[in-house]
């Protein structure tokens, strides 16, 4: 079964309401799923799937990763990875270019769920789309990282994991500044693209990268 929901009251912040509802309906394991990195011009998409082991002992501060300070994100993500059932999947730049960004993200969501230590009984996914091939019922929550604690936890882990990957990429390709902008469309990034052209981490299917590549070939 697949459902899509956007009917929660805005501004409340993530709660365990959706998780508790699924548990009350018979589920024993509820996974939250979210991604980081759909928008950048370079690097992978990273997806995390998280089963919170005890909804009554969730650390304070879990929220949509965009609303959490970087240092707090690091601390929370490390704590969650040490205490919860967590799986992470990465869709490479090559896969993104081959499949398109949406399909690559959904592929990574399915992979992350499949890599949990045990199959969940219900999955909460941020956004409008539910990936195919899940082993259980699933619910797409629009703005889910601000509504569901499990999804918010997944958003923190996905963001921190991707940021760390892009910081390493900055060491491999220092002229692009990946360690600072993480592959997003900043002025520094565009200046580097204009000067040096794309590197192997740039998404060739994204218009600004494709146009820059064509300009270099003229």
Q: How would you concisely characterize the structure shown here?
A:
With 218 residues, the chain is α/β, with parallel strands linked by helices.
Jot down its keywords.
about 220 residues, elongated, 8 helices, alpha/beta, 6-stranded mixed β-sheet, Nucleotidyltransferase, domain 5, 6 strands
Report what the structure shows.
The protein has a six-stranded mixed beta sheet with strand order 1-6-5-2-3-4. Helix content is 42%, strand content 16%. The radius of gyration is 18 Å and the shape is elongated. The protein has helices at residues 17-24, 70-83, 93-99, 101-114, 149-172, 178-181, 187-196, 207-217, and strands spanning 2-5, 30-36, 45-51, 85-91, 122-126, 137-141. The chain has two domains: 2-170, Ribonuclease H-like superfamily/Ribonuclease H (Nucleotidyltransferase, domain 5); 173-217, no CATH class. With 218 residues, the chain is of the alpha/beta class. The longest helix is centred in the C-terminal third of the chain and has 24 residues, at 149-172. Helix 2 packs across helix 5 and helix 3 (93-99) crosses helix 4 (101-114).
């Amino acid at each position: 079964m697949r459902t899509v929901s956007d009917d929660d009251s805005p501004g409340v912040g993530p709660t365990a309401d959706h998780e508790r509802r699924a548990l009350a309906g018979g589920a024993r394991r509820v996974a939250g799923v979210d991604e980081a990195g759909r928008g950048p011009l370079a690097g992978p998409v990273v997806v995390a799937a998280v089963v919170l082991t005890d909804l009554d002992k969730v650390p304070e501060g879990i929220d949509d990763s965009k609303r959490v300070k970087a240092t707090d994100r690091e601390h929370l993500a490390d704590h969650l990875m040490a205490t919860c059932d967590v799986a992470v999947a990465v869709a490479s730049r090559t896969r993104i270019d081959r499949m398109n960004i949406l399909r690559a993200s959904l592929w990574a969501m399915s992979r992350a769920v499949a890599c949990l230590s045990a199959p969940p009984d219900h999955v909460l996914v941020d956004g409008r789309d539910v990936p195919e091939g899940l082993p259980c019922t699933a619910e797409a929550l629009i703005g889910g990282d601000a509504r569901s604690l499990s999804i918010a936890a997944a958003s923190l882990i996905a963001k921190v994991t991707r940021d760390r990957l892009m910081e390493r990429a900055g060491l491999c390709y220092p002229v692009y500044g990946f360690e600072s902008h993480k592959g997003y469309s900043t002025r520094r990034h565009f200046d580097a693209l204009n000067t040096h052209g794309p590197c192997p981490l740039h998404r060739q299917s994204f218009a600004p990268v494709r146009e820059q590549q064509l300009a270099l070939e003229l």
